[in-house]
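Reply to dn_fold:

You asked what the input looked like. This is it:
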Amino acid sequence: MRVIMTGGGTGGHIYPAIAIADEIRRRDPDAEILFAGAERGLEKDMIPAHGYDIRLITVAGFNRKNPFKNIAVMKKLMKGSRQAKEIIRDFRPDFVVGTGGYASAPLVRAAQKAGIPSYIHEQNAVPGLTNKLLEKHVRKVFLGFKRAGEYFKYKEKQVTTGNPVREEFMTLDRAEARARLGFADEDFVLLAFGGSQGAGRINKAMISVIERMSGEENMNIVLGAGSYYYDAVLQTLEEDGFEPAENIRILEYIDDMASYLKSADLVVSRSGALSVAETGVCGTPAIFIPSPNVTGNHQYYNALAVAEGGGAEVIEEKDMESERLIGEILRLKADPAGLAVMAEKSAEFGPRDATRIICDRILEDYMHD
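and this is what came back:
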C-alpha cells in the first residue's frame, strides 16, 4: 500500500494527518507513506520528527488586501502544481488524503487528474476555501464537525467523524501524566495556551492571572506563551517587578501536550479544531477564547459546539477582560462538582473513533478497487 498524506501550514492540519498515517501504519506495517507539504509550513520539521518522509512544494495563499501581489502567488501555484504532478508520478500512490492547508490542493488535484482516489478531512465547523474547492474531486469528505456539512454541496460524500487525535492523548493516564510533570494529586492545575506561536490577548490576561495567583497553595498555573510572545511575557513580568513563585510555569512551547492536558483541571485556550479535539479526548473542562481573525469565525463555532454540550465556557475576545477571566477561573475552581460534570461532558465530545472511522472508509475502498 502506497499513501500520500498532504496538508499543513499549522498543527491543526498536520497532527490529524499524522494520526491517520499512524493508524494506517499500525494496520499495515509495510505501508509506504509519504507526506507532501509546503516549503514554508511547520510540516517541514514536524513530519520528519514523527518518522515520516516529506516532499515540499511551492505554494502561497492569495492576498486579499493587495490583489497585485497575487501575480506572484499565481506563479508559485503553477510551480506547485508541476511539483505535485511530479510527486504523484514518482511515488505512484494508491490513494491521497488531504487534511487542509495550501499544499493539499495541488496534490489532491494532481491525484484526481491521474485517476488516483483521494479524500479530504475538514477539521473546523466552518470549512476553509481549499477543501470547498476540492470537494467535487474527492471520493469522501470527512468532517470534524457535523455543522461543516452545511457548507459542502455533495451530501452523499460526507462522513462525520470528528477530528483525528494521536493515540497518546487517549491512552495516557491522569495519574501517570501528573507524576511525569511533578504535580500532586491534590493540586489544581490550570493550563493556558494559544498555539505554537501563542495568542497575545490570552497571554495578556494570563499575566494578570499569574500575578493574582502566584504562590497560592495547591494551585499550579502553566502558560504556554508561544514562540512569538514568550520573551514579551517575561519582559512584562519583569517590568511589573514581579517574580513568579514556584507554582507558575511559563513555557515557550509545550512539547508534551498530552501530559499537560491530562493533568489539567481546567484549560484556557483558543478553539482551533485540534485544540478542541485534544481537550475533549482528555476530558478536560475549558474556557475557550476563540480567535476572531479566522475564516468564517470558525473557532467560535468550534467552541460553541462543546459549550452547548456543557463541556466548556466561551468568552469572545471582544468581551474578555482580565478580571472576567480571573472570576471565571475562581468560580470553576470553587465548584468541584460542577467542574466534574463539565469534565464528563467534555469527554463525551472527544472524538475517540475519528481516526478509526476514516481509515475504515478509506481502506474499504482500497480493498474493493
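The mean pLDDT is 91.
Hope that clears it up.
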